[in-house]
């Protein structure tokens, strides 16, 4: 967070927007993770010290999130992933 707070804030915004529209936590998490390396590319000067390491780390985070969400991805592909509850119900 200290190294690229703006990229992280933008990814958090992606999470919020996707969550608001889809109401599926895993879709929001995957979207935010996928956006993180793109926001690193946009917000950090490629000529700055450590840019390559920061970009590699953000890509690693994206890969880790996708690996962690393998079962969620399978449920999404089958159309079985549950949406966030509204008024105590899962839709």
Distance between the termini: 34 Å
The residue-averaged pLDDT reads: 91
Rg from alpha-carbon coordinates: 15 Å
Continuous helix count: 4
Strand content: under 5%
Largest sheet: none
List the helices and strands and how they pair.
Elements (H helix, E strand, L loop, with lengths): L4 H18 L2 H19 L7 H18 L1 H9 L13
Helix pairs in contact: 1-2, 2-3
Molecular structure report:
With 91 residues, this protein is an all-alpha fold. The protein has a domain of 57 residues. It is 70% helix and 0% strand. The chain has 4 helices and no strands. α1 runs antiparallel to α2 and α2 runs antiparallel to α3. The model has no long low-confidence stretch (mean pLDDT 91).
What are its keywords?
single chain; 91 residues; mainly alpha; 4 helices; 70% helix; 0% strand
Concise synopsis of the structure shown:
With 91 residues, this protein is mainly alpha-helical.
């Amino acid at each position: 967070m200290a190294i690229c707070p703006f990229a992280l804030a933008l990814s958090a915004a992606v999470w919020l927007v996707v969550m608001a529209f889809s109401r599926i936590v895993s879709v929001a998490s995957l979207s935010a993770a996928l956006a993180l390396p793109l926001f690193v590319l946009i917000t950090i000067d490629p000529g700055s010290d450590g840019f390559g390491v920061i970009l590699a780390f953000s890509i690693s985070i994206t890969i880790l999130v996708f690996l962690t969400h393998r079962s969620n991805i399978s449920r999404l592909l089958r159309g079985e992933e549950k949406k966030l509850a509204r008024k105590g119900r899962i839709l």
